[in-house]
Amino acid sequence: MSAVRRPLKSLGQNFLVDENIIDKIIQAANIQPDQPVLEIGPGRGALTTHLAERAGRLVLIEFDHALAAWHQDQLKGNQHVTVIDADVLKVDLKALLSETLQKWNVVANLPYNISTEVLFRLYGVHDRLARMTLMLQKEVGDRLAAPPDCSAYGVTTVLLGLWFDITRAFVVHPGSFHPSPKVDSAVLNFIPRTKPRAEVGDEDVFRSVVKSAFSMRRKTLINCLKSAEFAKQINCCELLEACGIDGRRRGETLSLEEFAQLSRWVTERVCKI
């Protein structure tokens, strides 16, 4: 089978074809000798050959069955490469990344239509990661670096910011892909922290607090929190008063530390959501 075939719009396929950008991504990934690497959505393999040359072990997760089969054929002689023909959103990443004691480097050109969901999945295995180098829609990258009280600031900003130091490496313009998307992309480096940026208590509670606060962006914080599962067990007005936070504010105005403060208070009063 030839890998050179028409990209599938239904899978959000925009294949990277710019050799200069490919080289820059590999450099940004900073793969260390013998390090295990996970590539999500290898597509036509623009990055894969370079990763296979550098990684101690390379695992590819490819949703497109035809491309997964092509990679298996192309790389069948390399004992250090494993191809997983599956949807990354359904793969048990924790189990996969726990197969070795070494921490993983993740490299990916993420399809725009699932990038946020993949980020949440990777957030859940931050303790198994040494580094991530991800290409995302520039708008998503801007969101991850957004300060409080702006329209881009949201759930991904707060959650990913708890456990990762995130920097933008460079912007990638549409002409670097086939077919060309209608928007710019950005390559970001995610460096996991040894400790969270703030103490949040129970992290399941923290996620619930954050997601609830952004659940209705035009509503006040108090109205958003009242819709949360934990609101069945605690008084949200009492929660906000105890934390010194005005319930008339909106979720996007809260800093990470304020979210952490709310989470700690809820954690102390709710055993499990």
CA radius of gyration = 20 Å
Shape label: elongated
Total helical segments? 11
Q: What oligomeric state do the depicted chains represent?
A: single chain
**Main beta sheet: strand number and arrangement?**
7 strands, mixed
Strand order of the largest sheet: 4-3-2-5-6-9-7
| Overall strand count | 9
Helix content: 25-40%
What is the CATH architecture assignment of the largest domain?
3-Layer(aba) Sandwich
CATH fold call of the largest domain:
Rossmann fold
CATH superfamily of the largest domain: Vaccinia Virus protein VP39
Determine the structural class based on helices, strands and strand pairing: alpha/beta
What is the percentage of strand-forming residues?
15-25%
Give start-end ranges of low-pLDDT stretches: none
Given this structure, which CATH class of the largest domain is correct? Answer: Alpha Beta
Q: What's a quick, concise take on this entry?
A:
By secondary structure, the chain is an alpha/beta fold. Helices cover about 35% and strands about 20% of the residues. A 7-stranded mixed sheet has the order 4-3-2-5-6-9-7. A two-stranded antiparallel ribbon has the order 1-8.
List the helices and strands and how they pair.
Blueprint lengths: L14 E2 L2 H11 L6 E5 L7 H7 L2 E6 L2 H10 L6 E5 L7 H5 L6 E6 L5 H9 L5 E9 H7 L10 H9 E9 L4 E2 L6 E8 L10 H11 L7 H5 L10 H8 L12 H14 L4
